[in-house]
Specification:
Layout (H helix, E strand, L loop, with lengths): L2 E2 L13 H6 L11 E7 L2 E8 L4 E5 L10 H9 L3 E5 L18 H14 L5 E6 L1 H12 L4 E7 L11 H9 L5 H4 L5 H8 L1 H8 L38 H14 L2 H7 L2 H6 L13 E6 L10 H8 L6 E7 L6 H4 L1 H14 L1
Parallel strand pairs: 4-5, 4-6, 6-7, 7-8, 8-9
Antiparallel strand pairs: 1-9, 2-3, 3-5
Helix pairs in contact: 2-14, 3-4, 8-9
């Protein structure tokens, strides 16, 4: 069952215009979608999906995703009385993709979120982030603490600024062996592989822990043996939460934007660490919840208690840590109803 480290335990069981739309690439494949429109924030044109009225909630996606990753939560939270905004982050979908790698550092990404709040005419927002969206959200709250009411982080926990650069630590740990974040560091390499066949990389990444797969083509662990697609066995059957039209929509977004922008986030890991010394020992003092799939490799098998202990060093008002069993990395899509229910309950309390 779901293990939630707060008093609620498991409450919910298993449980713009036509011109702008035509300019924003393919129409989503399902009905009842939010409005898609372009806004100007932090010097870039950004596409947002927007629905509902009430307190502002911003949903921040990760890699390699888009606003569409939040399609279920947008409807659920709008129906619960919130003004929901889910952007294509810079470098994704119809949002601008600057050329400069440094334009994707954490200062720009956090300022993009603050820019959305300003554009919506609000002083503060509730923030929800998944994967890289969680990293952006953790840092946005730390860098702009007066602009956020609460934070819900999915899949990627935060234990404070480390004593060494994360890239230096990864290089030391992996040596000559392949690790996707290190593979992403050399400009032009990974994006060339993925741009040549977006469907191949997306289909292999968008899977659940129990998704049947074929054996990988590349088994040599060394980085020199090849790229990432060949190291990921093709799926025999896509998971139930990803319909053919869902996958088609994602593929169309990356055929439009390419993968370079999203990969540039990873190329700023060292820069982000180097330019944020003031975050050493900094705390987050707004209400925080953390939610992940129990089988998400990002949490590295840690229990809810272990995650709670590590995050309490930074979060002074950590309300809950929830792990969903038999669930992997794409948690808000794999367990859409349960994630939506947890978010509604958390937002209702704060």
């Amino acid at each position: 069952m779901t293990f939630s480290l707060n008093r609620r335990q498991t409450l919910y069981g298993l449980g713009a215009s036509s011109l702008l739309l035509s300019a924003c690439a393919n129409t989503p494949p399902t009905s009842g979608e939010p409005d898609l429109r372009m806004i100007r924030v932090n010097g870039i044109d950004m596409r947002i999906a927007e629905m509902g009225e009430g307190p502002l909630v911003i949903l921040v996606h990760g890699w390699p995703e888009s606003w569409y990753s939040w399609r279920h939560q947008i409807r659920a939270l709008a129906a619960a009385g919130y003004h929901v905004v889910a952007p294509d982050m810079r470098g994704y979908g119809a949002t601008d993709a600057p050329q400069d790698i440094a334009a994707y550092d954490i200062h720009h990404l956090a300022a993009d979120i603050v820019g959305i709040i300003d554009e919506m005419g609000e002083d503060k927002a509730h923030l929800v982030g998944h994967d890289w969206g969680a990293i952006v959200s953790w840092n946005a709250v730390l860098l702009h603490p007066d602009r956020f009411r609460s934070l819900a982080a999915l899949s990627v926990p935060y234990g404070g600024r480390g004593p060494v650069s994360p890239i230096a630590a990864m290089k030391k740990g992996y040596g000559e062996n392949f690790f996707y974040i290190l593979y992403f560091q050399e400009p032009g390499i990974a994006e060339a592989e993925f741009d040549a066949n977006p469907r191949a990389i997306l289909k292999r990444l968008y899977r659940s822990p129990d998704t049947p797969t074929l054996p990988p083509e590349i088994t040599d662990p060394r980085m020199a043996a090849g790229g990432w697609i060949g190291r990921l066995g093709d799926v025999k059957q896509s998971p139930e939460w990803l319909s053919p039209s869902d996958l088609d929509y994602y593929v169309a977004q990356f055929e439009r934007s390419g993968f370079r922008g999203g990969i540039n986030y990873y190329r700023n890991f060292h820069r982000n660490w180097e330019t944020t010394p003031e975050l050493t020992g900094a705390t987050i003092d707004i209400p925080v919840m953390f939610l992940a799939g129990e089988d998400d490799s990002v949490i590295r098998g840690r229990s809810a208690e272990q995650l709670k202990a590590s995050m309490e060093e930074t979060c002074t008002d950590l309300r809950e840590v929830t792990l969903l069993p038999d669930t992997g990395h794409w948690v808000q899509q794999e367990e859409a109803s349960r994630v939506s229910a947890e978010l509604r309950a958390f937002l209702g309390e704060v």
